[in-house]
Amino acid sequence: MIVYYEAATGRIAKTVRSLGAVGTVRTPPEGLAQLDAPDVAKPFDFYVKNETMLPYPPSPGDWATFNYDTQEWFDPRTVDDLYDEAQAYVRAFRDAVNIKRLKVITAGTDVDITGYGIVALQGRPEDQTSLQGLAFGAQLRINSGDSTTLIDFMDRNNAHHQLTPAQILELWQKGAAFISAIYARSWEIKEMNPETTDPNDDTLWELGP
Questions:
Q1: Which residues are bridge partners to 72 per DSSP?
Q2: Dihedral angle of Cα 166, 128, 208, 89, to the nearest 10 degrees
Q3: Residues 123, 106 contacting (CB under 8 angstroms)
Q4: With bands split at pLDDT 50, 70 and 90, how would you rate the model's confidence at 22?
Q5: How far apart are CA 100 and CA 180, in angstroms?
Q6: Model confidence over 82-122: pLDDT tens digits?
Q7: pTM, rounded to two decimals
Protein backbone atom coordinates (compact mmCIF):
# COMPACT_ATOMS: atom_id res chain seq x y z
CA MET A 1 0.00 0.00 0.00
CA ILE A 2 1.26 3.45 -0.94
CA VAL A 3 0.47 6.17 1.58
CA TYR A 4 0.49 9.86 0.68
CA TYR A 5 0.72 12.05 3.74
CA GLU A 6 1.19 15.70 4.57
CA ALA A 7 4.91 16.26 4.88
CA ALA A 8 4.43 18.99 7.48
CA THR A 9 2.18 17.02 9.82
CA GLY A 10 2.05 13.33 8.99
CA ARG A 11 -1.72 13.30 8.35
CA ILE A 12 -2.56 10.70 5.73
CA ALA A 13 -4.23 12.33 2.73
CA LYS A 14 -4.88 9.31 0.54
CA THR A 15 -3.75 5.76 -0.10
CA VAL A 16 -3.47 3.45 -3.10
CA ARG A 17 -2.89 -0.25 -3.23
CA SER A 18 0.10 0.06 -5.54
CA LEU A 19 1.88 2.56 -7.72
CA GLY A 20 0.24 0.90 -10.69
CA ALA A 21 -3.16 2.04 -9.45
CA VAL A 22 -2.21 5.65 -10.12
CA GLY A 23 -0.76 5.06 -13.56
CA THR A 24 2.65 6.45 -14.30
CA VAL A 25 2.48 9.19 -11.67
CA ARG A 26 5.14 8.32 -9.13
CA THR A 27 5.91 11.77 -7.72
CA PRO A 28 3.74 12.69 -4.72
CA PRO A 29 1.45 15.70 -5.17
CA GLU A 30 2.80 19.01 -3.91
CA GLY A 31 2.97 19.19 -0.13
CA LEU A 32 2.64 15.41 0.27
CA ALA A 33 5.20 12.75 1.01
CA GLN A 34 5.05 9.12 0.00
CA LEU A 35 5.49 5.98 2.07
CA ASP A 36 5.43 2.34 1.06
CA ALA A 37 3.50 0.85 3.98
CA PRO A 38 1.88 -2.50 4.81
CA ASP A 39 -1.84 -2.86 4.15
CA VAL A 40 -4.10 -1.99 7.08
CA ALA A 41 -7.89 -2.25 7.29
CA LYS A 42 -8.42 1.43 8.19
CA PRO A 43 -5.41 3.44 7.02
CA PHE A 44 -6.96 6.79 8.07
CA ASP A 45 -6.83 5.59 11.69
CA PHE A 46 -3.07 6.12 11.38
CA TYR A 47 -0.66 9.00 10.85
CA VAL A 48 2.99 9.04 9.80
CA LYS A 49 5.85 9.91 12.12
CA ASN A 50 9.49 9.41 11.16
CA GLU A 51 8.33 7.44 8.10
CA THR A 52 6.40 5.03 10.32
CA MET A 53 2.63 4.57 10.44
CA LEU A 54 1.35 5.02 14.00
CA PRO A 55 -2.22 4.60 15.25
CA TYR A 56 -4.00 7.66 16.61
CA PRO A 57 -4.59 7.40 20.37
CA PRO A 58 -8.29 7.32 21.41
CA SER A 59 -9.94 10.67 20.77
CA PRO A 60 -11.62 12.34 23.78
CA GLY A 61 -14.41 13.71 21.57
CA ASP A 62 -15.46 15.14 18.22
CA TRP A 63 -14.17 18.52 19.36
CA ALA A 64 -10.57 17.30 19.72
CA THR A 65 -7.74 18.22 17.33
CA PHE A 66 -4.58 16.14 17.03
CA ASN A 67 -1.22 17.80 17.58
CA TYR A 68 1.21 15.95 15.34
CA ASP A 69 4.22 17.44 17.12
CA THR A 70 3.27 16.29 20.62
CA GLN A 71 1.24 13.34 19.26
CA GLU A 72 -1.62 14.21 21.60
CA TRP A 73 -5.20 15.39 21.27
CA PHE A 74 -6.00 18.89 22.48
CA ASP A 75 -9.05 21.11 22.80
CA PRO A 76 -8.80 24.03 20.33
CA ARG A 77 -11.99 25.71 21.53
CA THR A 78 -11.91 29.11 23.17
CA VAL A 79 -13.98 30.12 26.17
CA ASP A 80 -16.35 31.88 23.77
CA ASP A 81 -16.59 28.73 21.64
CA LEU A 82 -17.48 26.65 24.70
CA TYR A 83 -20.09 29.21 25.76
CA ASP A 84 -21.64 29.27 22.29
CA GLU A 85 -21.74 25.47 22.19
CA ALA A 86 -23.35 25.32 25.62
CA GLN A 87 -25.97 27.87 24.59
CA ALA A 88 -26.70 26.00 21.37
CA TYR A 89 -27.08 22.78 23.36
CA VAL A 90 -29.54 24.43 25.73
CA ARG A 91 -31.51 25.92 22.83
CA ALA A 92 -31.73 22.53 21.14
CA PHE A 93 -32.91 20.98 24.42
CA ARG A 94 -35.58 23.63 24.92
CA ASP A 95 -36.71 23.29 21.30
CA ALA A 96 -37.15 19.55 21.96
CA VAL A 97 -39.23 20.39 25.05
CA ASN A 98 -41.44 22.65 22.92
CA ILE A 99 -41.96 19.91 20.36
CA LYS A 100 -42.91 17.39 23.04
CA ARG A 101 -45.20 19.95 24.71
CA LEU A 102 -47.13 20.37 21.48
CA LYS A 103 -47.50 16.59 21.17
CA VAL A 104 -48.79 16.30 24.75
CA ILE A 105 -51.30 19.09 24.27
CA THR A 106 -52.42 17.69 20.92
CA ALA A 107 -52.97 14.27 22.49
CA GLY A 108 -55.28 15.97 24.97
CA THR A 109 -56.71 14.77 28.25
CA ASP A 110 -59.81 13.16 29.77
CA VAL A 111 -62.02 15.65 31.57
CA ASP A 112 -64.51 14.66 34.27
CA ILE A 113 -67.58 16.87 33.88
CA THR A 114 -69.78 17.44 36.93
CA GLY A 115 -73.04 15.54 36.67
CA TYR A 116 -72.03 13.92 33.40
CA GLY A 117 -68.80 11.94 33.34
CA ILE A 118 -65.66 11.67 31.24
CA VAL A 119 -65.16 13.58 27.98
CA ALA A 120 -62.02 12.95 25.93
CA LEU A 121 -60.56 16.28 24.84
CA GLN A 122 -58.03 16.82 22.07
CA GLY A 123 -55.80 19.88 22.09
CA ARG A 124 -55.06 20.74 18.49
CA PRO A 125 -55.31 24.48 17.72
CA GLU A 126 -58.55 23.92 15.80
CA ASP A 127 -59.98 21.95 18.74
CA GLN A 128 -59.12 24.77 21.13
CA THR A 129 -60.73 27.34 18.83
CA SER A 130 -63.88 25.22 18.39
CA LEU A 131 -64.28 24.65 22.13
CA GLN A 132 -63.68 28.31 22.86
CA GLY A 133 -66.49 29.17 20.44
CA LEU A 134 -68.83 26.71 22.13
CA ALA A 135 -67.93 28.16 25.53
CA PHE A 136 -68.68 31.68 24.31
CA GLY A 137 -72.07 30.54 23.02
CA ALA A 138 -72.75 28.70 26.28
CA GLN A 139 -71.97 31.83 28.28
CA LEU A 140 -74.42 33.83 26.14
CA ARG A 141 -77.12 31.25 26.84
CA ILE A 142 -76.46 31.39 30.57
CA ASN A 143 -76.50 35.19 30.52
CA SER A 144 -79.90 35.07 28.81
CA GLY A 145 -81.24 32.68 31.46
CA ASP A 146 -80.99 29.50 29.38
CA SER A 147 -79.28 26.82 31.44
CA THR A 148 -80.96 23.73 29.97
CA THR A 149 -80.48 23.74 26.18
CA LEU A 150 -78.13 20.87 25.33
CA ILE A 151 -75.10 21.57 23.16
CA ASP A 152 -73.56 18.91 20.94
CA PHE A 153 -69.87 18.15 21.32
CA MET A 154 -67.78 15.48 19.58
CA ASP A 155 -64.69 14.33 21.47
CA ARG A 156 -61.36 13.00 20.23
CA ASN A 157 -62.78 9.47 20.09
CA ASN A 158 -65.58 10.69 17.80
CA ALA A 159 -68.08 10.15 20.61
CA HIS A 160 -71.03 12.54 20.69
CA HIS A 161 -71.92 14.31 23.91
CA GLN A 162 -74.85 16.56 24.74
CA LEU A 163 -73.88 18.98 27.47
CA THR A 164 -75.64 21.83 29.20
CA PRO A 165 -74.21 25.35 28.84
CA ALA A 166 -72.67 25.08 32.31
CA GLN A 167 -71.06 21.75 31.43
CA ILE A 168 -69.66 23.20 28.20
CA LEU A 169 -68.13 26.02 30.20
CA GLU A 170 -66.65 23.51 32.64
CA LEU A 171 -65.27 21.49 29.72
CA TRP A 172 -63.57 24.56 28.27
CA GLN A 173 -62.24 25.70 31.65
CA LYS A 174 -60.76 22.29 32.48
CA GLY A 175 -59.30 21.98 28.99
CA ALA A 176 -57.69 25.41 29.33
CA ALA A 177 -56.39 24.45 32.77
CA PHE A 178 -54.81 21.31 31.27
CA ILE A 179 -53.00 23.36 28.63
CA SER A 180 -51.81 25.87 31.24
CA ALA A 181 -50.53 23.03 33.42
CA ILE A 182 -48.62 21.49 30.51
CA TYR A 183 -47.03 24.85 29.73
CA ALA A 184 -46.04 25.22 33.38
CA ARG A 185 -44.56 21.72 33.34
CA SER A 186 -42.60 22.52 30.18
CA TRP A 187 -41.05 25.55 31.91
CA GLU A 188 -40.00 23.31 34.79
CA ILE A 189 -38.45 20.78 32.39
CA LYS A 190 -36.54 23.52 30.57
CA GLU A 191 -34.78 24.34 33.86
CA MET A 192 -33.61 20.75 34.27
CA ASN A 193 -30.13 19.53 33.31
CA PRO A 194 -30.11 19.01 29.51
CA GLU A 195 -27.42 16.35 29.82
CA THR A 196 -29.50 14.09 32.06
CA THR A 197 -33.06 14.99 31.04
CA ASP A 198 -34.96 13.37 28.19
CA PRO A 199 -37.83 15.70 27.24
CA ASN A 200 -39.58 12.78 25.54
CA ASP A 201 -39.86 10.89 28.82
CA ASP A 202 -43.64 10.73 29.31
CA THR A 203 -43.29 10.50 33.08
CA LEU A 204 -41.95 14.07 33.13
CA TRP A 205 -45.26 15.30 31.72
CA GLU A 206 -47.58 13.48 34.08
CA LEU A 207 -49.85 15.83 36.00
CA GLY A 208 -51.08 15.19 39.50
CA PRO A 209 -54.70 14.23 40.24
A1: 67
A2: -160
A3: yes
A4: very low
A5: 15
A6: 999 999 999 999 999 999 999 999 999 999 999 999 999 99
A7: 0.70
